[in-house]
């Protein structure tokens, strides 16, 4: 017979078992809810992080700003979680102390607290409202900082870069009182007219060496560079010009209201190979390109472009060094007249180039420039930088070849452009039997078509040291030396017997020393720099066609000083002043003083 105790135990068992089952079910449900909430939170966290990454990749936020937003959000979350937990603890204590007589509910099981703002604020504000909020903030920054929202613009527009510059120049040329008149033939004008210069206009055959003159000039250039794909770009540059000159794009004012001429100064394709660390190992260029050489205005005018193909190859060192990684070089030609070459500190570089100078009709012999330059670039102390380079420039088929009587076979050896200084010899002799020279009174006994006497095979060594210990003021010392190894006096005498007489001498050395002190680039108001230079350039040291056009009015066979400076008037606006005092080395006396004042603006 069942006892009372047994009955009570059975009754208790029947009551407890359902309660325990209910508690287990509730516990299981709570665990599932927590796991679901954790999954949702993880999903929200990843969504938020990925959304911000997308904004960074699309250009809506920069990386630094995104990291700042994330840190701020985490800090705010931590503060609000503590405040929420403190409020709930205070509420719990207040509830426990309200009515001690009231039967207490069974104690509930406590789990780790998940703040409501994480489930609601992140879910609602981040997912639903983050995009609009961020875009609003980005647009506000874009309006203030003027950088725009790339995603709102056509993709091709983001790959186009437009730049340009304007220069207004006042130039005064003062000639020495001892300069002889009609002492320097204008070979360029003679060749362009094929020697046909009438007697009553003989001044066209000579350069002005006695009459001072003032000229006002303008240069306007605009460049368009387009990124085709990673590492590959194409570019063109338009410029004013009013004369056939590869070394000057100045438009001289005073054309009776005629419109200005515009020319393609550059048109090129460029490929840059960069590794995963953004090191540029080599660059390839083709078309009409900027000067690829480390050089000075003694060899190549600042306005000179090169037609052909070139490649620069680099070997990097110390790229993990913080000073090297953080070094920001000025523009390659930021100091007017100096071309710094490859801007890769702590590297060795090699530049090779092949440039057609003139295509010759009815002949397989064209005029070419083949060049090679090897150099090194070191950050010797902090941002103080030393660059050294040695180059060899081999000009092919440039020298004159004498025609036979009344023959035109070698007319192509006459250069298309010259300045003055190089030794010239007649291709066609005006001996009365040459049908090309129809005017017996002009240049009698001379030639009616002229060419270069010498070959040009130039060795060039350049050193530049940029001392930056007093930054932002820099002191740049540059040394440039050139030697033409192509002059052959015996060959010249053999091919043009007696024409040069006692002037058939090797005059083939040139050097320049220059000091620049001040800001490397003139960008803002009160930025300044000064220039002091001395140049000595014998008549056949370099090709006179490509040298600076202001020093001694261009060309070679000159020595003298240049002093000048730059001063910033406003952002990207500055004045440049230069004074040149030069004289001839070997030719007839020719003293020239030149003053230039340039107003420059960069677009």
Characterise this structure.
- This protein is of the alpha+beta class and 603 residues long.
- Helices cover 23% and strands 36% of the residues.
- Strands 1-2-3-5-6-8-10-11-12-15-16-17-18-19-20-21 form a 16-stranded antiparallel beta barrel.
- The chain is elongated, with a radius of gyration of 39 Å.
- The model has no long low-confidence stretch (mean pLDDT 83).
**What kind of sheet is the major sheet?**
16 strands, antiparallel, barrel
Strand order, biggest sheet?
Answer: 1-2-3-5-6-8-10-11-12-15-16-17-18-19-20-21
- Shape verdict: elongated
Gyration radius, in Å? 39 Å
Q: What structural class results from the helix and strand content? A: alpha+beta
Order of helices and strands: HHHHEHEEEEEEEHEEEEEEEEHEEEEE
Oligomeric form of this entry?
single chain
Beta-sheet strand percentage? 35-45%
* Overall pLDDT score: 83
Task: Please outline the helices and strands.
Blueprint: H1 4-58, H2 63-96, H3 116-145, H4 155-158, E1 160-175, H5 187-192, E2 213-229, E3 232-241, E4 251-252, E5 261-274, E6 280-289, E7 295-296, E8 306-316, H6 322-325, E9 338-339, E10 347-358, E11 367-381, E12 384-396, E13 424-429, E14 447-452, E15 457-467, E16 474-484, H7 489-495, E17 509-518, E18 528-537, E19 558-570, E20 573-584, E21 591-602
Antiparallel strand pairs: 1-2, 1-21, 2-3, 2-4, 3-5, 5-6, 6-8, 7-9, 8-10, 10-11, 11-12, 12-15, 13-14, 15-16, 16-17, 17-18, 18-19, 19-20, 20-21
Short note summarizing the structure:
The protein has about 600 residues and is of the alpha+beta class. The protein has 7 helices and 21 strands. Helices cover about 25% and strands about 35% of the residues.
């Amino acid at each position: 017979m069942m006892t009372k105790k047994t009955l009570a135990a059975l009754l208790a068992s029947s009551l407890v078992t359902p309660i325990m089952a209910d508690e287990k079910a509730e516990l299981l449900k709570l665990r599932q809810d927590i796991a679901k909430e954790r999954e949702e939170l993880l999903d929200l966290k990843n969504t938020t992080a990925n959304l911000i990454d997308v904004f960074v990749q699309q250009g809506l936020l920069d990386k630094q700003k995104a990291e700042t937003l994330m840190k701020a959000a985490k800090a705010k979350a931590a503060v609000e979680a503590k405040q929420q937990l403190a409020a709930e603890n205070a509420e719990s204590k207040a509830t426990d102390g309200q009515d001690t007589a009231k039967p207490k509910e069974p104690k509930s099981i406590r789990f780790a607290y998940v703040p409501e703002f994480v489930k609601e604020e992140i879910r609602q504000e981040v997912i639903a409202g983050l995009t609009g909020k961020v875009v609003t903030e980005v647009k506000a920054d874009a309006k203030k900082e003027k950088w725009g929202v790339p995603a709102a613009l056509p993709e091709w527009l983001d790959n186009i870069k437009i730049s340009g510059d304007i220069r207004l120049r006042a130039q005064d040329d003062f000639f020495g009182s001892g300069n002889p008149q009609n002492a320097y033939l204008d070979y360029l004008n003679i060749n362009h007219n094929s020697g046909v210069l009438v007697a009553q206009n003989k001044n066209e055959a000579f350069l002005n060496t006695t009459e001072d003159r003032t000229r006002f000039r303008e240069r306007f250039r605009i460049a368009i560079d387009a990124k085709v794909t990673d590492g590959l770009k194409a570019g063109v540059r338009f410029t004013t010009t009013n004369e056939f000159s590869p070394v000057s794009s100045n438009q001289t004012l005073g054309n009776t209201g005629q419109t200005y001429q515009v020319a393609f100064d550059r048109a090129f394709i460029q490929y840059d190979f960069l590794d995963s660390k953004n090191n540029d190992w080599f660059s390839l260029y083709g078309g009409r390109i900027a000067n690829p050489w480390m050089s000075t205005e003694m060899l190549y005018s600042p306005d000179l472009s090169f037609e052909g193909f070139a490649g620069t190859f680099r070997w990097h060192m110390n790229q993990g060094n913080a000073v090297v990684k953080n070094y920001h070089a000025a523009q390659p030609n930021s100091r007017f007249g100096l071309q710094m070459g490859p801007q890769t500190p702590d590297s060795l570089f090699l530049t090779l180039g092949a440039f057609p100078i003139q295509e010759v009709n009815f002949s397989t012999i064209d005029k070419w420039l083949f060049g090679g330059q090897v150099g090194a670039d070191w950050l010797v102390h902090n941002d103080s930088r030393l660059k050294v380079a040695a180059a060899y420039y081999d000009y092919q088929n440039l020298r004159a070849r004498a025609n036979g009587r009344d023959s035109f076979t070698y007319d192509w050896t006459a250069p298309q452009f010259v300045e003055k200084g190089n030794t010239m010899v007649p291709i066609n002799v005006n001996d009365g039997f040459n049908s090309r020279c129809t005017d017996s009174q002009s240049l009698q006994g001379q030639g009616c078509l002229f060419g270069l006497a010498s070959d040009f095979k130039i060795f060039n060594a350049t050193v530049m040291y940029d001392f930056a210990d007093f930054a932002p003021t820099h002191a740049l010392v540059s040394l440039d030396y050139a030697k033409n190894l192509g002059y052959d006096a015996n060959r010249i005498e053999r091919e043009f017997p007696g024409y040069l007489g006692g002037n058939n001498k090797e005059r083939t050395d040139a050097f320049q020393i220059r000091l620049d002190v001040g800001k490397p680039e003139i960008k803002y108001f009160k930025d300044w720099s000064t220039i002091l230079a001395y140049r000595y350039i014998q008549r056949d040291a370099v090709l006179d066609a490509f040298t600076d056009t202001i020093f001694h009015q261009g060309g070679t066979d000159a020595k003298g000083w240049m002093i000048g400076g730059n001063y910033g008037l406003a952002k990207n606006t500055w004045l440049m002043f230069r004074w040149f005092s030069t004289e001839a080395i070997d030719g007839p006396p020719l003293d020239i003083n030149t003053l230039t004042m340039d107003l420059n603006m960069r677009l």
